[in-house]
Each structure stands twice: as structure tokens, then as C-alpha cells.
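User: Structure with flavin-adenine dinucleotide, C-alpha cells only please.
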Amino acid sequence: MRTSSDSTLPAYDALVLGAGIIGTSTALHLQQRGLSVCLVDWQAPGSGTSHGNAGLIERASVVPYSFPQSPLALLRYAANRQTDVHFQWRALPAMAGWLWRYWRESAPGPLEQAAQDMLPLIERCVTEHDALIQAAGLQNLVRAAGWIDIYREPAAFAAAAADARALAGRYGLQADVLDSAALAAREPALLPHARMAGGIHWLDPWTVSSPGKLVQGYADLFCRRGGTLIHADARSLRPNTSGGWQLATPDGDLQAAQAVIALGPDAPELFRPLGYALPLAHKRGYHLHFQPSPDAPPPRHPLCDSRAGFVLAPMEQGVRLTTGVELALPDAPINRIQLTRAERIARQYWPLGQAIEAEPWMGRRPCTPDMRPIISAAPRHPGLWFNFGHAHHGLTLGPASGRLLAEMMTGEPTFTHPAPYSAHRFL
Ligand SMILES: Cc1cc2nc3c(=O)[nH]c(=O)nc-3n(C[C@H](O)[C@H](O)[C@H](O)COP(=O)(O)OP(=O)(O)OC[C@H]3O[C@@H](n4cnc5c(N)ncnc54)[C@H](O)[C@@H]3O)c2cc1C
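Assistant:
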């Protein structure tokens, strides 16, 4: 962190606002292309949503997380008794327009288009992370052994196995379909009396044992390579008199030719005052760590219970239980209901020890209704750029999105056409 009290700070080629996985990756890619870059956050890098996720670099998530379509599923969710999705009734009127649009975009045709549009980013997620992991020396945080989707009910497992085979065939993914014996061999601590039906082991994804440390490690690499990291509030960003951008810091005004908004769920605090009505909503999610049980090790792989929407992931801090989606107003208090329900289900098949923290961590996934991020020039402000809205897959997509935006900002040929991610689609 900069500590100088000099009020005439050097001018940069680019300010990157937000040091989550998206901003930090963007800063590294701009720096790699020869720009002088200042990365700005009011917390330590990787302390926002990027801190607490399930740690999946999700190469197998080729179809975005969509809104359920079948009337039966909608009825089930309407009762608000599910573990994977929970909503605060008071939030629904405020979110109705956004949810309606999300529902329409989740119909088979638009969802297929969204999957095609996301594929160029998803396909590169592991290779782009790998380049940064090697350069930053963070191999100790990462495993290339995939994750396992587990099923208790035979019918649900049979349907998932058929879907997995089709998806793997279509997209060239590697998946082992495990019957109950094969699942028990791969995860020997699963409780035998739980009689699991089986699992799908997705082999292409990588997993991270501390996502926050990974981002901090990427930020350290950025600083080692000569980048500047500054602790400041990004909301003072203003156009300056020379056609660039300036930001007030306790040490004086920062000046730069270009600026990137990469504030994840807080991006509206900056783009709204600039006149952009982009539909960015939050889907909340929680985590809590558990000690491994005294007579069983942590899971060998992250285990996902798709029906209940949670992941049990072996992390540095313990076994991390991450929840599905909560729709709530920004000022809504923490609601432990999904954690409580998920813990009860998890204990039926996994020997968890005591909870480590008294209070859960809560994060906000920054989501657009068409399930694509916004990686784009700001339509009405030269030199201003957007990189946010990565929803359920921000950890996965950070380095690929950072590369794409850096290529756009420096006028390089882009590895994929950026049109599907343009802010223009909402304006
Ligand atoms: C429970 C849960 C599980 C998840 N699991 C996965 C997973 O397994 N794999 C995956 O790919 N994704 C996962 N995600 C999604 C992923 O975590 C997010 O998409 C991603 O972290 C978003 O990154 P970001 O950089 O856009 O935002 P953030 O990480 O939130 O970064 C934004 C940064 O901006 C800073 N900031 C905000 N306002 C200001 C301001 N005014 N001034 C200065 N700085 C500011 C914040 O301090 C923060 O550091 C999960 C999310 C949740 C909630």
C-alpha cells in the first residue's frame, strides 16, 4: 500500500477500481501489455465476494445458472422452503422486473445462446488461471482434480448422469459417472448408511483451497512487477480536465488516462451516478467452516449437492460449506436458514465436526439478467471501462475477462468477439 503524503501523485495509464478477482486480473493483464497501472480498493485485495466462494475454477459450467422454467419447479420455489434458493418476501417487488427478465432469458433458446456466448471465456478459464498461478508461485493453493456432484436419489442421479454424458460429449468435457460403490471409493469418508445413489466427477475444473489468498497472491505479483496498489474509496472517480480520470485519495488526486470499474456487486455505486441504468442485481450466498470430524478426513474433492445448492469444499480454514442463492434487499440482515438446512442435509452423509466461526460469511454475487458479464467500454464516457457482473463464476472467469478487457483497452486483436458482453445491450 502507498503511504506517501505527497499530494502530486504520478499519472497512470490506467486506474483499476476494485481488487477482487476481476479487478486484480485486469490490472495484471494491462500491466503485461506495458501500461502503468494503479489498482484501488478500500480493503485488502480479495476481501470482497472473491474471498468466500467455493473455490471452483469451473471449466465444466458450460451452461449458465438459469431461472427454473418448469411449472412444477416454480411451484416448489414459490413455497420458499427450498435449501438452494431462498427469498425475502419484501425483496420481490423491488426485484420483480429483474427476475422477469432473468426468467425470460432462461428459456431454452436464449439460454442456449447465453451458453454459446459464454463458452469462449469458460474454455480459457483454466489456462488463463494457470499462467497467473505459475507466475505468482501459487501452485500450493490449487488442485487439478475436479469436483464431484453427488446424488442421494436414484432417479435424480440417473437424470444427472444422462445430462452429464450429453454435456461431456457435446463440449469435450471429462466426467466420470460413479455408481454408489465407485463414489464411496473416491470419497471413502462418505457415511455408508446414507446410501448415496452416485455422483458425477467433473475432471476438468481446478479447485482452490483459499480463493482470497489466490487473489492476494495475484495482487502481490502485480506489485512485484511494479504495479501500484492504493487504499482508497473509488466513489470519488471523476472525469479530469485533460480528458482522463481522477480519483481523490488521502494522499492527493490520482490521475489516469483510462479507468476500469471492477467493483463487483458495488459497481452500481459508480456507474449509476454517471447515468448508466445497468441491471446488476445481487444473489447473496453464505459460508461457514467446520472442523473435520475426529474420525474422518475432509472431503478429497469439493462435493456439490446440486438439489440443495450447496458445496462442501476442503479449504485451508476447514471444510467450507457454501450456500446457494438468497434474494434479499441490500439492508436485509444475515439469514442463517439456508446454512442450517444445508448443514442438516450434509451431516446425513458427511461426518462434519464443530462449526469454526460463530457468524457466517456473506457474499453478494453480481448478476445480470442475461447471465453474461459486462466487459465493455462505457458507452458515453471515453476512457471508462466496465468489468463486472460475473455472477456464479467470477473466480472462474477473472483472468479470461481481465485478458479480454486489456486487449480491448490496448487495441489488440481480442481472443473472442466482445459484443455479447457489451453494456450497449442494456441501454
Ligand atoms: C457463496 C458463493 C460461492 C461462490 N462460488 C464460486 C465458485 O466456486 N467459483 C466461481 O467462479 N465463483 C463463485 N462465486 C462467485 C464469485 O465469488 C464472484 O463472481 C466473484 O468473486 C466476483 O468478483 P469481483 O472481483 O467482481 O467482486 P469482488 O470480489 O466483490 O471485488 C470487488 C472489490 O471492490 C471493492 N470495492 C467495492 N466498493 C468499493 C469502493 N467504493 N471503493 C474501493 N473499493 C471498493 C471491494 O472491497 C472488493 O474488493 C461464488 C459466490 C458466492 C457468494
